[in-house]
Amino acid sequence: MEEGKLKYLSGTSYLNGENTHYIEALYERYLVDPDSVPGEWRGYFDTLPRYDGSPSRDVPLAPVRGQFEQLGRLGPRPIGAQGEDDAKRQVRVLQLINAYRFRGHQRADIDPLGLRKPEPVPDLDLSFHQLSKADMDTEFQTGSLFIGKDKAKLAEIVEALELTYCRSIGCEFMHIVNTEEKRWLQQRFESVRGKPDYSAEVRQHILERLSAAEGLESYLASKYPGTKRFGLEGGESFIPMLDEMIQRAGGYGVEEVAIGMAHRGRLNLLVNVLGKSPAELIDEFDGKQVLARGSGDVKYHKGFSSNVMTPGGEIHLALAFNPSHLEIASPVVEGSVRARQDRRGDASGDQVLPILVHGDAAFAGQGVVMETFQMSQTRAYRTGGTVHIVINNQVGFTTSRPDDARSSEYCTDIAKMVQAPIFHVNGDDPEAALYVSQVALDYRQRFHKDVVVDLVCYRRHGHNEADEPFGTQPLMYAEIKQHKTTRELYAEHLIATGVISEADAQRLTDDYRGHLDSGSHVVNALVQQPNPSLFVDWKPYLGHEWSGDYDTSFDAKRLAELATKMCTVPEQIVMQRQVAKVYEDRRQMITGQAPINWGFAETLAYATLIDQGHPIRITGQDCGRGTFSHRHAVIHSQTDASTWVPLQHLEQGQPTFTIHDSFLAEEGIMAFEYGYATTTPNALVAWEAQFGDFANGAQVVIDQFVSSGESKWGRLCGLVLLMPHGYEGQGPEHSSARLERFLQLCAEENMQVVAPTTPAQMFHLLRRQVVRPLRKPLVVMQPKSLLRHKDATSTMSELAEGRFQLVIPDQGERSPSAVKHVILCAGKVYYDLAAYRQEQKRDDVAIIRVEQLYPFPEQSLAAALASFEQLESVCWCQEEPRNQGAWYAIKSTLRQVLEGHRSGLGARLVYAGRDAAAAPAAGYMAVHVEQQKALVAAAFEG
């Protein structure tokens, strides 16, 4: 052995033959849990020699014991000695303790209906560890068990473990790698045996909250029998849980709480926690219109915000709007939370707390849950940890068999992917539910990681109040029918223990009913005059009518200054050769030696917006450089892999420019950015698809939020979707951004769909999105080949002086009277048409670009056509198949424009493009080239 180690051992008098069993017991404890032995021993065991490449803690005891014997300090093993047997039993006790921590949850009483029949857990039996009842009065070292003393009888140890891990709370945290987190959780649960002794005041408050939860459901059931409300009956403990989390969060200095939640219990939360007026809820049940315009939405989808007072001060609460795609609201809330944190400079997430409320079936079944967990610790999407509450009804719609609902033991197992602790709790034990809510919030605030509370309960009236649940769950509902409510059970308990009287319990119910009858607020902590600094002021963005034309010019001198700063890179950043060429080309563009290309115009737009005080956030799977290597907004040094982002270094104290390459997902990420954009109206927020067809994976977000959020909920959003689109022969999957789908969703001026064809157009389009106070989603059919097309260029003056053109008239000096045929198009096909016209010398044909496809610029198009008095035919040309692209969406509008033209109905409207097809594009380059030539030629036939 090393000299220092021999010196250490020579100074330890307890290393002798008489203490062999003690040393071996310590080492066995170390093998199970390194933190269960004193620090000096842990440090020594960590330095023991390795065997077969394994650390000392991963090898058996025998070869390690030989190291002690080499010192001459350990005598021969006393065969048959009593001490050896004691030591082995000590190790077995430590293993038993560990078994309860690992598997005690499988024997916990967490099902209020008693229908859960867990499999036997042999690890929790004494015999499994070669212990017996005869050992119960023997004292053993308690190791890391938080029992209040170093030694205890085995009977005391087992009782402590049973009370902690096998009552109303089932804890899962041993899958966590971090030792500090595990020790912290062990201490929280073991020190109080999983059930703290709450004061009479706290218990009375719990009953008051349960009475409110039950009271609202009873009131609505009697007033609107059979009406869908997705009531909370069976899960009433949720209300005191969430109420406690919010009040406790205030003590931590939290100033905002954003909540995401699906249907069940949502109305109860709105009234009993957020303070929505019962009178307003009744109006919704009566079908009264609330929004002045738009479709509105059912009452259990609606969001709400309010301010409540806590012991730590005022907190702003925001419940996100939620569609029927149950879990899709989760990443939306996370995006909103990240925006609130960024606005506050809250990098750790201490001031803004996300709480997500899930259903058990959706939590286990919907993939966006995994995406949301995957975001939780990434740079672009972390929010400092989320508290997840699963209202576990033990049945998904009509699916109750676990082997039909999922392939895991618990619906919450997905959370283990990020090592989140999971607390299963019996919904009929509201004190246990309250305690896990406290531990969950404390864990989140301390470790800034996700945590899950699984509230195991039931639903008293089936999937909704119009269902007959006995048809599919007869045994479950036979038990539910005779099962007392949580409030009844808890009131009986408090009466039996002398905490309250029967009259006290009844008075709580009567008082709550009186508040409902009067229509007054039922949340005592509700702040009637909220502090406006706690939330975003949307007033500057409200009430603006649609206007496509907006001044987006920018001072030419300042533009050149910003361009120069963007091209200044520190010497220590060694650029890759092609990237260096990109920046050298940009320096020439500034001086006019080269025309401005797409990538430079786009990044210049960002620079001008930052200069005018607007933050920018861009994410996507390859957005730092751009999928087609046009942006290079992030420079990677070739020597040390450090990065330089020029747009972050324009001025001291500038607004933030955030750009992150995302992980490989679309649905959760687009939803996150939607949530971010709805919370940061002053910023440009963009999501870039690697290819346009990748939006397929986020169609739920587009359908339920992007296109309809304003109509359903009055929710404004300026999110930008950058969708690479264009037929380049890359096959069915990488040609189309499914323009037709977006146009099909367009109505009531709900969003903008554009297909810009020049760098200047992109520059002004991005600027228009932010400097104009109107907030509508923007969908950009972004080109691919045009990023470097020799003709798709602009000048610095076009950027400084121009504005976004809804329609670009025919370019050239041809005589309008000679034009008999006009081709209308959008996007990249224009350059193919222009090249063909020049090649064929067809000066009798004009080409007009429709740059904005929705809202369709009818007046601008009519003005572009006005000079062609001899017009005979108009062709809409597109690259997409006839049943895709823009044709079906705009052809009736085009006919209306032509009817208003001075040539009247004499101008025929024809189509040129690919034939209708099931797939978006051909998979063979030769076929693509042939089709492209044919459609371009057909466009000139008229």
TrEMBL record:
A Pfam family in this protein?
Answer: OxoGdeHyase_C
* Domain of life of the source: Bacteria
Which catalytic reaction applies to this protein?
Answer: N(6)-[(R)-lipoyl]-L-lysyl-[protein] + 2-oxoglutarate + H(+) = N(6)-[(R)-S(8)-succinyldihydrolipoyl]-L-lysyl-[protein] + CO2
- SUPFAM superfamilies, alphabetically? Thiamin diphosphate-binding fold (THDP-binding)
Q: Is Oxidoreductase one of the keywords?
A: yes
Cofactor(s) essential for the protein = thiamine diphosphate
Question: What role is this protein assigned?
Answer: E1 component of the 2-oxoglutarate dehydrogenase (OGDH) complex which catalyzes the decarboxylation of 2-oxoglutarate, the first step in the conversion of 2-oxoglutarate to succinyl-CoA and CO(2).
Identify the PANTHER family for this entry. 2-OXOADIPATE DEHYDROGENASE COMPLEX COMPONENT E1 (PTHR23152:SF4), 2-OXOGLUTARATE DEHYDROGENASE (PTHR23152)
Q: What is this protein called?
A: 2-oxoglutarate dehydrogenase E1 component
Organism for this UniProt entry = Halotalea alkalilenta
- Provide the taxonomic classification: Bacteria, Pseudomonadati, Pseudomonadota, Gammaproteobacteria, Oceanospirillales
